[in-house]
Amino acid sequence: MKKSSKGKTQKTPKKPIKKAGKKVLKKILKEPLKKIARKPLKKVSKKPIKKAGKKEVKKLIKKVVKKRVVKPIQKPFKKVAPKPVTVTLSDIKSAKTPLWTPSENQIKKANITHFIEYVNRKHGKRFKTFDDLYQWSVDSIPDFWAAIWEFTEVKASKKWDRIVDDLKKFPGTIWFPGARLNFAENLLRYQDDRLAFIFKGETQKYATMTYRELYYTVARLAKSLREIGIQPGDRIAGYMPNMMETTIGMLAATSVGAVWSSCATDIGSQAALDRLGQIEPKVLISVDGYFYKAKPFNTLGNAAEVARGIPSLKKVVIVSYTGNKPDIGAIPNAVHYEDFLASEKEPALEFEQLPFDHPVYIMFSSGTTGKPKCMVQGAGGILLHHLKELLLHSDLRRDDKVFYITTCSWMMWNWLMSTLGVGATVVLYDGNPSYPDAYAMWKMVQDEKITFFGLSASYINYLRGEGIQPGKHCDLSSLREISQTGSVLSADGFEWVYREVKKDLHFNSISGGTDINGCFAVGSPIQRVYAGELQGPGLGMKVKAYDENGKPVWDKEGELVCEAPAPCMPLYFWNDPDGEKYRAAYFDYYPDIWRHGDYVVMHSDTGGITFYGRSDAVLKPSGVRIGTAEIYNVVERIEGIADSLAIGQNWEGEQRILLFVKLAPGGELTEELKNTIRKTLREKASPRHVPSIIMEMPDAPYTMNMKKVESAVTNIIHGRPVLNRDALSNPQVLDYFEKVIPELQK
User: Fold this and answer.
1) Can you give the pLDDT at residue 53?
2) Which residues pair with 455 in a beta bridge?
3) Please, which residues have CB within 8 angstroms of residue 600's CB and are 6 or more apart in sequence?
4) With the CA atoms of 508, 514, 518 and 521 taken in that order, what torsion angle do they form, in degrees rounded to the nearest 10?
5) 24, 212, 470, 632 — which has fewest CB within 10 A?
6) What is the DSSP pairing of strand 334-336 with strand 315-319?
7) 386 and 288 in contact (C-beta within 8 Å)?
8) What are the distances in angstroms from CA 589 to CA 168, 582, 592?
9) 139 contacts: CB under 8 Å, gap ≥ 6
10) 595 near 565, Cβ under 8 Å?
């Protein structure tokens, strides 16, 4: 029986009752009464039911039905847990044979594997390979960088309000607005008795320092800096060797919010002034000298010249290295380092809390085409980028001992110092890496049990030329990774490492630049290594190879570009208020796209990247673009050739290739050797790669970072001035090229 809306009783139809069985009927009657009678009937009073119209009753019935249907369906989803995903190698379809393949155990233990697992949990993904992770990192850029922040446990007094303001602002993107942190605090998160530093100054000096000692030494220097009025935004400069006090200076400066910039003492005073003078530092930290091939070189004269050339300096702090508290009376406002440190042994270290984009470093371009450009980099961006590369791409841990052949003029010094944030031991070396012999660095790897060794392509090529066999003569059992950068390394160079150094190690060839204080292309411990190829793009770096029309290309040479912003990119250039120099440096060629200036091939089969040198050094005989490295990779394999330099000379309306070769000791540039060079280039490269002229040279010009400088020789050959010879490590070799100009005009 039921009531109508008018309250009259109506009879229930009999047909359905006749057709339904008793058991079914009981279920039909009981089920709705149980579930409807519990909650809805208690809430609804009798009066509204009597007054309710048809529409209201229908609504009530619908609500009840919805609750009946939805509740049982929701519960199972809460109970189902996603199955864990096993991280594996990327699926490669290539006929190429890898030089190294990580084992299952190596993949399982890798930091990047733990990061993939973290991302899968956090974002509900099922990534299995590096390729999966990379694609997500450039498709979901804000989520990726937030994940890096959280995974690396960045120390901050205030978290961000949002991750990024607008990715379409390129340049000009603002990252992590609202966040407050300190760069030095994140590098000094460990304060225990593990070794922070091992320092070796050739055969003359040896010292160590624990994380606890480092922390309180930085605190003493920071206190002294505050006492002389150093504030956030002030510049502090280092004109120093690669020693512990250089890093202490950087950490003390950045702890109080000052901006650090440095160059090595092996560059002349004018070259140092061209760099440091532009940024008007208030404090200069320098040294009494350095050792090179066991000989001491006094640098107090250079320090005095630099100090006199920078009127903004309030204090010049001199570290004693080659002597003991030498006379510093000729240096304006000078004080000995030991006397400048606060006398209190363990003062409190206050870390100034600053915005994410507060400047931390000012880096300098090579300066081969004029006064070096000053690139200002943000603390948060550099910190995230370095921790990403050190933890994920380089797989560093607390028990590692990390060493790079570098000076504080090179960005690899800044990169190496961020290793402190991982808690590993940093090995510092100052001097000639081949003193007392070519095995010196490998003996140090053996003696100090170094696990990660960073070096340049030119160093590898030097070892190859000398016939050095490190694996045969040294115990390299501790070594698990070699990082190589600086310039292009040929496929033969890769093969030499696995043949003459060690078969089972990760050869991590990397490339990027001072501009971003890190890498665009880099390796990872869960990918294969192929000869002549960097393993792939860096996470979060949306890199491509573009042709002249700005279209992406694979398996053919193109310009390296980055299509999206990254936190590590410069905030601005110093003394560039309108941003004109900044835009001209990277964004004029392809609008709103970062053009880095490297010539590369992106391999579709392996995902690797081969570099062919700077695109501004590209040769164009008959209008065809040729990377200089294509010539070097062939020529420098020929017996008797130690080094080479190729440039393009404008000649009779075309461009012809000039090839200069440095011969191995005792060698002679005969017609037979010239013919061998031409024949080999024709067969191994192409007829267009064959030079019109081949000449002997004493040496190729190199920057302080051991990069060949084709542009300097190109300028000389075309009668243009070389604006900054002091930017070269061997400027005297340019005299040779000036002498041979008459021969090249015939």
Assistant:
1) 54
2) 484
3) 521, 545, 557, 558, 559, 560, 609, 610, 611, 612
4) -50
5) 24
6) parallel
7) no
8) 18, 12, 9
9) none
10) no
* Exposed e or buried b per residue across 562-581, where buried means at least 16 C-beta atoms within 10 angstroms of its C-beta: bbbbbbbbbbbbbebeeeeb
List the structure tokens of 9: 């009783």
Asked whether the beta carbons of 482 and 510 are under 8 A apart, the reply is no
In 408-470, the DSSP E strands lie at 425-430, 452-456
Q: How far apart are the first and last CA of the chain?
A: 118
Find out whether 657 and 621 touch, Cβ atoms under 8 Å.
yes
d(CA 215, CA 39): 65
DSSP H stretches of helix in 256-299: 269-276
Query: Amino acid identity of 725?
Result: R
Q: How far apart are CA 128 and CA 139, in angstroms?
A: 17
Q: Which is it for the CA torsion 577, 582, 584, 589, positive or negative? A: negative
197-235 b/e with 16+ CB inside 10 Å = b?
bbbbbbeeeeeebbbebbbbbbbbbbbbbbeeebeeebb
Q: Quick check: 267 and 239 in contact, CB under 8 A? A: no
- Distance between CA atoms of residues 73 and 468, nearest Å: 70
CA distance 206 to 203: 8
User: Of 289, 276, 287, nearest to 237 (Cα)?
Assistant: 276
* H-only helix segments in 167-299: 183-187, 211-227, 244-255, 269-276
Cα separations (Å) of 189 from 152, 155, 353? 12, 8, 15
pLDDT means per 10 residues, the chain with 746 residues, are 43 43 43 43 44 51 44 42 79 91 97 98 97 98 98 98 96 97 98 98 96 98 98 98 98 98 90 93 97 94 97 98 95 98 96 98 77 93 98 98 95 97 98 96 98 93 92 98 90 96 97 95 98 97 94 94 98 95 92 92 96 76 73 90 92 86 92 95 85 95 85 87 81 93 87
Report strand pairing: 289-292 vs 295-298. antiparallel
Q: Which two tokens stand for residue 478?
A: 């501790």
Nearest-angstrom CA–CA distance, 301 and 303: 5
What's the DSSP call for residue 626?
A: B
Residue 231 and residue 256 in contact, taking contact as beta carbons nearer than 8 Å: yes
Alpha helices in 260-408 (DSSP H): 269-276, 300-308, 337-340, 379-387
Q: What single DSSP character describes residue 536?
A: E
610 within 8 A of 601, measured Cβ to Cβ: yes
Closest CA relative to residue 32, chosen from 60, 51, 9: 60
Question: Using CA atoms, how far apart are residues 251 and 214, in angstroms rounded to an integer?
Answer: 10
The pLDDT value recorded for residue 413 is 97
Cα distance between residue 236 and residue 251, in whole Å = 11
What was the pLDDT predicted at 370? 59
Closest C-alpha among 445, 391, 529, 398 to residue 96: 529
pLDDT at 367: 65
DSSP 497: I
Residues 6+ apart with CB under 8 A from 551: none
- Cα dihedral 475, 478, 480, 486 in deg (nearest 10): -70
Positive or negative CA dihedral for 123, 129, 132, 135? positive
* Among 159, 420, 396, 372, CA closest to 270: 372
